[in-house]
Specification:
The protein is an alpha/beta fold. It folds into 2 domains: 153 residues, no CATH class; 233 residues, TIM Barrel (Alpha-Beta Barrel), CATH 3.20.20. A hairpin with a 2-residue loop joins β5 and β6. The termini are far apart. The relative contact order is 0.12.
Length: 441
């Protein structure tokens, strides 16, 4: 595919690269040579305000891809062929799909002034996707489906990349055990607290687990192994290895031999990543230290991460990750609402909007986190399962990547998490029935 543009900018190169990677087996080329474009016999797109001779798809450009500033954009959403669009114009596509795609993928709106939530995060309520009602849709993937049809109407012999639906389950291991391996003083303090609050059943439970009479409720790793085997799934585990316990970082010490064994075992069997501590957001040295700790235990250079509490600010967080040697990040999603934060169910390269550069950081977005359903939406497990199915089907429709976040403690099937283990089991059953990979018993 040959693209004509009078002005070739980093923003334009970035979004054309994403489009070509998503729907084509070859890199699309951009040229500012009108004569070359007109005489070329290749499939081609005229991305300019001029009508050029020859059979080509014409997309009238919005100005955003030719700017190098970050300013509030005048966005009016309308419907086109049943899908929400913006930057509507006289393009054959009905709107500037390149500019709209760039706005959503770059997270342009997150660089504009906003009031952060209590953890310093961009609130989902501020997003265009939430305000316009498409947060639960991987809109860019739907646009790409229509775009392929528009290309075929011009070039019936054009071949597209075959994309397959993927289910990527991921887990944040904030605390590998509820009672075990916490040490005498942490357990003693918790027993005293439980006695003072008359939680006698909690004391009895803790003592039985510590005596070896019951399994620790957070230790669901064997059960997850069976689940992955049934669903033919390749999960990712993110480990919190903060060296100092704090209000938001309550993990088992990475120096603990049992914790080391869990990390070593999972690194042998699965892909693992770093769950950078809450504190690491304020101190890059802490981030680098934690990456080193996990890499040393796993005996591999860990290059994947997901922020604890999904604590992320653009561009600072991603720049810190790159500086620390992280090359894949799985934080792209909201804590307060499930859905598609970047309006896409595909991985994509992060574009540093302030430096105007395509980086080396690959972003793998998720669309469902059980903690969102439990703590923010106050859903029942049944309501959450219905939402999981809805999001699963949306992604399957566009052959995208359906990525979820669960925490091992939410699968303990007790307290506020009673019933959530069954909800997750039901999702795997649903997946196996959809993909015909077997049946869960």
């Amino acid at each position: 595919m040959l693209i004509f543009s009078e002005n070739i900018t980093p923003r334009l190169r970035y979004i054309i690269h994403f489009f070509s990677q998503e729907i084509s087996d070859e890199e699309w080329r951009i040229s500012s040579d009108a004569e070359e474009f007109i005489t070329s016999h290749k499939p081609k797109i005229n991305y300019s305000n001029h009508h050029l001779n020859g059979n080509c798809l014409h997309i009238v450009p919005h100005t955003i891809l030719f700017e190098n500033i970050i300013v509030e954009q005048n966005i009016q959403c309308t419907k086109n062929n049943g899908l929400t669009i913006f930057f509507r114009n006289e393009s054959e596509t009905g709107f500037d799909i390149f500019a709209a795609g760039f706005y959503l993928l770059s997270r342009y709106e997150e660089y504009l002034p906003f009031t952060p939530d209590k953890h310093g995060r961009f609130p989902y309520q501020n997003s265009l996707a939430y305000r316009e009602g498409f947060l639960k849709k991987p809109l860019i993937n739907y646009w790409l489906q229509q775009f392929k049809n528009q290309i075929l109407s011009k070039y019936p012999d054009f071949t597209f990349k075959e994309k397959k639906f993927q289910f990527l389950p991921t887990y944040d291991i904030d605390m590998a055990w509820s009672y075990r391996h916490k040490g005498f003083w942490r357990n003693s303090a918790n027993v005293v607290l439980d006695l003072l609050t008359l939680r006698f059943w909690e004391v009895a439970h803790r003592l039985k687990v510590l005596a070896g009479m019951q399994k620790d409720p957070f230790d669901v790793f064997d059960w997850l192994d069976e689940l992955h085997e049934i669903g033919k799934l390749n999960p990712l585990y993110f480990f919190l290895v903060a060296e100092r316990v704090s209000k938001f970082d309550k993990n088992i010490s990475p120096k603990n031999p049992a914790m080391k064994r869990v990390i070593e075992q999972h690194s042998r069997e699965y892909s693992i990543g770093l769950h950078p501590s809450y504190r690491s957001n304020e101190d890059e040295k802490v981030l680098i230290s934690e990456k080193g700790i996990l890499s040393e235990i796993a005996k591999e250079d860990v290059q994947s991460s997901r922020q604890h509490y999904l604590k992320m600010n653009l561009p600072e967080t991603y720049r810190r990750l790159l500086s620390a040697g992280i090359r894949k990040d799985f934080t792209m999603g909201y804590a307060g609402s499930n859905g598609f934060r970047a309006s896409v169910a595909s991985s994509f390269i992060w574009y540093d909007l302030k430096n105007e550069i395509e980086t080396d950081l690959l972003i793998i977005p998720f669309c469902f986190m059980e903690a969102t359903s439990v703590f923010y939406k106050k859903d029942t497990p049944e309501q959450a399962f219905a939402e999981m199915k809805q999001l699963y089907n949306e992604v399957k429709t566009v052959n995208g990547m359906f990525s979820t976040i669960w925490h091992n403690n939410s699968l303990a099937d007790e307290g506020i998490f009673k019933g959530w283990k069954d909800a997750y089991d039901s999702l795997i059953v649903y997946h196996t029935s959809c993909s015909h990979v077997g049946h869960h018993k």
